Amino acid sequence: KGEGHVEGEKVENPDTGLYYDEYLRQVIDVLETDKHFREKLQTADIEEIKSGKLSRELDLVSHHVRTRLDELKRQEVARLRMLIKAKMDSVQDTGMDHQTLLKQFEHLNHQNPDTFEPKDLDMLIKAVSARYK
């Protein structure tokens, strides 16, 4: 029997191997709750996604979705800060500062740690794309 995908059924995706895999999945899940964005995502081709055209659609999602994305970003920034602190503690006296460590995380805009903006979505897409070139 060829049973198709049932609406509302969760499809388990394999782990991407990215250190921000959980964040990526959560962002996608939240964005797909917005009907307009989900439709744009389903009709967009890979070049539209990679170019950042899809990221501009973020301005049109509902307030609830933006609030949830802001919350996810703050959680991810807190997680990264914890990782940075652990790394700094383990490499004392190397002269590496906090900002230098933050710059290695290219999947979000670390200069704006509080809100999820189109630039964040664009950076997340580009980071994933660069990993799979």
Provide keyphrases for this structure.
56% helix; mainly alpha; 0% strand; globular; single chain; 133 residues
Helix and strand composition category: mainly alpha
Total domain count: 1
Mean pLDDT: 81
Q: How much of the sequence is in beta strands? A: under 5%
SSE sequence, one letter per element: HHHHHH
**Net shape:** globular
How many strands, which pairing sense, and closed or not: the largest β-sheet?
Answer: none
Distance between the termini: 36 Å
Number of separate helices: 6
Low-confidence segments, given as residue ranges, are 1-11
Give the % helix: 55-70%
Q: Kindly state the number of beta strands.
A: 0
- Radius of gyration using CA atoms only: 17 Å
Helix and strand arrangement:
Layout: H1 21-31, H2 35-43, H3 46-51, H4 63-90, H5 98-103, H6 118-131
Helix pairs in contact: 1-4
Description:
The chain has 133 residues and is mainly alpha-helical. 56% of the residues lie in helices and 0% in strands. It has one domain. It contains six helices and no strands. Helix 1 runs antiparallel to helix 4. The relative contact order is 0.15.
